[in-house]
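User: Show me a protein chain along with its predicted structure.
Assistant: Here is one chain, sequence first, then structure tokens.
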Amino acid sequence: MCRSIKTLRPPYAESVTEDDLRAAALQYVRKISGFRHPAAHNAEAFDKAVEAIAAATAELLDSLEVRGGDRRATGR
């Protein structure tokens, strides 16, 4: 599932931007919802999900410890 989502932690990614987080979250929401662009009546729920997943992703990456590296895996 979501094979086009890139790994966002070192050593796979040197630095991760907010755009990277949002792109991964958007791809995930598109995949699980089955909508590339939601209808107007679903747009708010779709956008809320993208933002929540991006925030959860940032929290996860910020708390990962990569062996032999810094505590903050993202370098953001």
